[in-house]
Amino acid sequence: MDYGDKLFWLSVVIQRKYAQICAELDLTPSQATLLCAIRNEPRQMADLAAALGMTKNALSQLVDRTARRELVVRASSAQDRRVVMLSVTPTGKVLAEAVFAEVAKRLPEIASNLGADDQRDFERVATAIVDTSDLSPPTSNRPVTP
Fold first, then answer.
1. pTM to 2 decimals?
2. Domain at 3-132, CATH from 3.40.50.920, 3.40.50.300, 3.30.530.20, 1.10.10.10
3. Is residue 138's pLDDT more than 70?
4. For 99-126, b where at least 16 C-beta lie within 10 A, e where not — what string?
């Protein structure tokens, strides 16, 4: 396998672990990512779509499904009523925090077979990749995805 193959399979390992965590919390991975992206502050729907790499229509459908579960709520911006803001409900906040806690606890397990030095190198490289990515972070510079 070449480097691209290894990265592909690494993404599969990460996605599977994340999906398992989400399923245990009765969330789809998309719902969990949405909740985590807005867990600390409301976000504009347009900014959120860009940050999550989704079309506005796809985000709107995801928000509809998540709102039916009373995990998120839409509201007009106080500054501009044309701008739709999305925030978590108290229940959504609890779930978002649970996702983050489980990801922080269990995702590092993917590197558990590495030695201590390799684990530190993996953390350093993963951090560098995320920090230099083209993710659109919220204005407070909090991570967009777990």
1. 0.82
2. 1.10.10.10
3. no
4. bbebbeeebeeebeeeeeeeeeeeeeee
